[in-house]
Specification:
With 132 residues, the protein is mainly alpha-helical. The protein is built from 5 helices and 2 strands, in the order αααααββ. The structure holds zinc ion. Zinc ion binds next to loops.
Length: 132
């Protein structure tokens, strides 16, 4: 029975990694390689590195790839909680994902999401000298 739980958990973990990998590759333009690497010794460490890199540089933008790699690799039990929490923020707020995908920004005057190349806010008419 313990073996079954262990095996099932292993399969579920791989399934979870692959589905979140697909989500990150699709929505956040990460380049995490195929999940098949997860079942190959050594290659799975490289895969976790790429996963951590994508998560760090494209999802949460903290550029702490090495730190996340060590956490995901050594304390893998926390990975689902951490990653799911971040992905859910985007799932709950489509505007946030648009900002991320297109580089759209919030108007500092009215707070609406406006295209990244706007010179004038289409909602409140605020003109931007330089868009920072
Ligand atoms: Zn505005």
């Amino acid at each position: 029975m313990y073996l079954l739980i262990f095996v099932t958990f292993g399969i579920y973990a791989i399934y979870w990694y692959i589905s979140t990998k697909n989500e990150m590759n699709n929505e956040f333009k990460t380049d995490i390689p195929t999940g098949w690497l997860l079942i190959i010794p050594i290659a799975n460490i490289y895969w976790i590195y790429k996963y951590a890199e994508g998560f760090s540089t494209k999802v949460i933008d903290d550029d702490n790839t090495v730190m996340w790699f060590l956490i995901f690799w050594l304390v893998g039990i926390v990975t689902p909680a951490v990653v799911q929490l971040e992905l859910n923020k985007y799932a709950d707020d489509p505007d946030l994902l648009r900002v991320k995908q297109r580089g759209d920004r919030r108007c500092p005057n009215c707070g609406r999401i406006i295209p990244f190349d706007s010179v004038i806010c289409p909602y409140c008419g605020k003109r931007f000298e330089s868009f920072l």
